[in-house]
Amino acid sequence: MNVKLFWSTIILFFCLLIYSSICNAESRSLNQSTNKITYNQKNKTITLRWSEFGESGDYTISRGGSRLANNFINIGKTSKLTFKDKKPNQNKYENYYKITRGSESILISLENEIFGDNVYFYDRKYEHASTAQQEMKAHFPFIGMGGTNGEWTTKRQAYYFKPNIDGQSYDPGGSGSASSESANSIELGFYSHIGGLGKLPTDVKLGSLFTRPHLSGGANATCTFWRSVENLFVMRAFAWTVSQSTSARRMQIESSSKFISDIGHTNFWGSGGYIADSYFTSIRPNWGGQQQWYTRNSSFPNGTDRMGGSYNMVWQGCINPPTADSINTPITKTPIVREKPFLFIGDDGEYKVFVPAWQQDRVGVSWDSKDIGKGVVQDLLTQWYVAKEGDTEMEINAALKAGKNIFFTPGHYSLNAPIQVNRKNAILLGAGIASVTLEPTANNKWGCIYVDDQDGIIVAGLLMDSFNSTTYQIRVGNRDSQSNHSENPILLTDITCRVGGVQANDIQIHSSMEINSNNVIGDHFWLWRADHGSQPGGKKRWTRDRSKNGLIVSGDDVTLYGLFAEHHQEYEVLWLGERGRTFFFQNEPPYDAPNQEEWSSQNNRVKGFAAFKVANSVKEHHSIGMGSYAVFTGTDGNVNKDNAFEAPNTPNVKLGKMVITKFAGPGNILNVINGIGGTTKTGVKRVELYNSNGTQPFDEEFSLPDKESYPSYIEMN
Asked: What is the 3-state secondary structure (H, E, C) of 524-538?
């Protein structure tokens, strides 16, 4: 036998075998993406298609009314890879198909096809009251984790509850504090969202809901971030123990509610939070142990007594708020506001998005027991593009250009160029703390999102992250924007910008957020240069995670509610526009300034940088409810800050209810504002109102970001 021919044949055989394996693998991969469900509107039939799986035999098809339905009924068998259900349940979204072959099964539904794998739906019509609570409890150790690892996961998830029927609820029953096993609470972890799919909060009733602080044995909630809840009725206990980048909206809370830990033993504390458009029916809630909090347009049972809080509690447009004192600042009305859009199920059984209307001088909630509120209803499938993890900026921008709004399902969206919102009334709405992330590529030096200078644009519920050096993370308008949007302002709501914390490479951001357009309304921001993370801190963090400014405002008539900005390396908020307003501000300076020489402002004549800086050129500005707290821990022991706040001595520039104190570290804030108010060396210091009674800061030129807003290779209309 020819030995050479023999080995050639053997080699060829193995090459063909490897090639066949690769082809089969590619085929399996391709088939996995071909699972398909189609609803025929005319014939009211549903057709299923799937890729081959299992070893041998027919496929058995069973149907349930929901993903976790108590009962799945067998409706047929087939040897093919397709099946038509000629008599599905009347509501097309109440058809979940389990396809089984041997020991393997897959589940196919229209909801999964539309929303992807990171959205979980519950339907009490087909499930036990305890089903959702038990599944979320099982999820908790793996997704939305409560421990330190959960802070940096890229997993995102949303849990949506369909409206109750016939007096049902999702309450499995229970008693005791929300954290106890006997309470049978739903526990919400990192990067998680819970939403009711009714028109009203009372359409979806949960039993008990809580969040678990993971520091100091559950007593410390200062790192309980990135979670949200909306459009729900809580029947028993609501223990919402959180800090920044958390929101509770459009809630009815029937029984006890507290915003600080009910687990652990001593030293309970949290670092602020946000709640809006919520109705507390029977018991005044308790914020004891929270450093600060912003509450907007909510209603409390009768009473004016304090409801807790240590330094800065702002109550705006609320019914029965606490009486004003050094800590509490009730503000009678909300001058102009638009609530965040939300997903719900319409009367026709289809998914809708409710887009609330603008309201002026509002007091109390936007809804009542029979009325969804003022606004417009949009159909999700016809007017929106539902984005899923893996979608690119090219696909999202194309959908925007085609006239669609964007619903971001939970996920980690990797971008090589900004999402460009360049159409009047366009909406970006994120669910499950969806994050848009700048990847470390040479293509992107601009940012995550660029919002054009157009009327009525809404950006809501998104986290902007950075794995790459960029000019900005979100920018609204170019610096020469001059349009008047007073009839239909631009809205930014539930926005987080994060610099550092997770990436290993050096990055530099000039400004996390820039607002250059006029008449922009901001409703709850956290602009955070990370003070801790999965990478080394101290001096390494100072040079690795660079960010000059958290926010630069050059637009006129900009109003912000609930502004949190922390740890940026120069002016954390720099205000250049006229007639600006901020209602509630929270800040900590950068922990890690290495020495005073590297952290001085105004040509090294002033120690450190003010947390909130109104430029000397501004003629009119009014902000109220402002806190800045000294934490200089990563320094040489000799770093201080001269002023927490700085503003010009101009009659119509007024800053009120300012507070400073020290939480940790050797350094101090030496004055509240413009050289007056006292130092944190001797405890808490307050200034009730500043109006030209201190030393005006030096005139200076500010280093502003590059004017270029988006890649030149992307056409803009």
From this structure: EEEEEECCCCCCCCC
